[in-house]
Write a structure and sequence with these properties.
Bound molecules: pyridoxal-5'-phosphate
Helix content: 40-55%
Radius of gyration: 26 Å
CATH topology of the largest domain: Aspartate Aminotransferase, domain 2
Order of helices and strands: HHHHHHHEHEHEHEHEEEEEHHHHEEHHEH
Length: 464
């Protein structure tokens, strides 16, 4: 955006923004991308004739007190943990659907499902729904999992995995996770199998599904169905194949911050045609074979219902955004991988930080998770927040939540629950911003290290 750097607020207004040029120059030099926004706001506040009424002037003067101004700048310059990467193409896709005058489930959803099939594998069935949680719920329910049944789930996952099981009436059984990948620990899962266990739900935590083949061997031994929660793993690979190209039932999420988004959204991918047909009906309130009519922007009037169903279908608005995002997946993937690589090479040597042992080459990182040793995770989180950097905790162990409280211990999940911290990853994150995150983590580590040294000889934290 062109900025008129010569323009200056005049007269009395100048007094209240004495520092405005230096702030503007500073922002300009740092090229933070937000300088124009700050400039515009200062300009609108002080220099446009419409703001010259006494009340407005007083309000603006208070609003832009220097301390507040700095607070605002910090807010504007904050680094977000995650965000959608959407722009003109998505706007055009939405306009196309709006112009057509039919926003519900129709030809866009059909086209999105076809495009997902050609991306993942033509021999696979793809059913789009309105969230990843709905995908998991329908997959479980259409496998006739319900009251009295149990499903094995790793304790460290989004609560959606647990709630999807609960929604069927079945009981999610929390299992421990491995320390290096935060993946379902099969040794622990083995102990949790009972005659009521019907399925296992491994989670591609932080996009890594390298442990999945082991899960299938485990499931075959115990005659369980496998529902892969691949919410983090769209676009990732395993053994040269895209996630979803094989496996029993694989569920994706397309919520706003996933590897691709359709606003909200999700998909069930399976090779089981009968199961896919049942899921298609169940997403439309159980109305039998309504899907074909909907693809033509129509609906069945004389219909039958055989099984329970929900209003879980995807809309054309969502599918139009999803189709546009699917075309960008390679670029998104490169950008997320570059960020992951940057963090790994910068943070890998910090003595009190551990990185997860993920299959770098195969994954598109949806989140970048580190382990902060020594009980300092929350301090680092506060330190980052003070520097205007968002971080996250993926996730609080589910067996610690009241609804899913377990009467047994899951020692690794408990420990990781206090250590895991996610750093910002999204397609819009610039190298400069990432460097700021790394420098802030480094400053925290150095001050901790110096403090330790002052209090006696430095001991490396125990390696787990
Ligand atoms: C591991 C996991 N499973 C399931 C879900 C649910 O997906 P959605 O938010 O699309 O319902 C999420 C979403 O963040 C997730 O991270």
């Amino acid at each position: 955006m062109m900025i008129d750097r010569g323009a200056r607020p005049k007269g009395v207004f100048r007094r209240f923004c004495w520092d405005w040029t230096s702030i503007h120059d500073w922002l300009w030099r740092r090229d933070c991308g937000w300088h124009s926004k700050v400039w515009d706001r200062i300009w609108i506040c002080y220099a446009t004739p419409s703001t010259r009424s006494t009340t407005l002037r007083r309000r603006k003067i208070v609003t832009w007190r220097p301390s507040r101004l700095l607070g605002q700048i910090k807010w504007i310059m904050r680094i977000r943990l995650s965000r959608s990467s959407v722009g003109d193409e998505e706007k055009a896709a939405l306009a196309r659907v709006i112009d057509r005058g039919y926003l519900g489930m129709g030809p866009e959803v059909e086209a999105f499902e076809q495009e997902l099939r050609s991306y993942i594998g033509f021999d696979r069935e793809v059913v789009c729904v309105n969230t990843g949680t709905a995908a998991l719920h329908l997959a479980l329910q259409c496998l006739d999992i319900g009251p009295g049944d149990e499903v094995l789930v790793p304790s460290i996952t989004y609560v959606a995995s647990f709630q999807a099981v609960t929604a069927t009436g079945a009981r999610p059984v929390a299992c421990d996770v491995t320390e290096d990948k935060v993946f379902l620990d099969l040794k622990d899962a083995e102990q949790r199998v009972t005659e009521r266990t019907r399925a296992v739900m491994p989670v591609h935590y932080a996009s890594d599904g390298s442990g999945i083949p082991e899960v299938y061997r485990f499931a075959a031994r115990h005659r369980l169905r496998v529902i892969e929660d691949a919410a983090h793993a769209f676009g990732c690979r395993r053994d040269g194949q895209r996630i979803g190209a094989d496996g029993d039932v694989v569920c994706f999420s397309f919520d706003g911050i996933k590897n691709i988004t359709s606003g909200e959204g999700g998909a069930v991918v399976t090779g089981d045609k009968k199961l896919a047909e049942r899921i298609r009906d169940a997403r439309l309130l159980g109305v039998v074979k309504d899907t074909q009519k909907r693809y033509q922007s129509q609906r069945s009037w004389q219909f039958n219902v055989l099984h329970p169903g929900y209003r879980y279908h995807m809309s054309d608005l969502m599918a139009a955004v999803g189709r546009t995002q699917l075309r960008k997946i390679d670029r998104f993937g490169e950008s997320r991988q570059r960020i992951g690589k940057g963090y790994r090479s910068a943070l890998g040597t910090f003595p009190a930080i551990r990185l997860l042992n993920l299959e770098e080459g195969n994954i598109i990182p949806h989140i970048f998770v580190i382990r902060v040793l020594g009980g300092r995770r929350d301090k680092l989180c506060a330190h980052l927040s003070g520097a205007g950097i968002e971080s996250g905790v993926h996730y609080r162990p589910n067996h610690q939540l009241d609804l899913f409280k377990a009467d047994y211990r899951l020692p690794r999940a408990d420990k990781l629950g206090d250590e895991l911290l996610s750093l910002p990853v999204h397609v819009e994150l610039t190298e400069r911003e990432q460097q700021r995150v790394i420098d802030t983590v480094r400053a925290f580590e150095v001050s901790w290290f110096n403090e330790k040294r002052k209090n006696g000889p430095f001991k490396k934290p125990e390696r787990y």
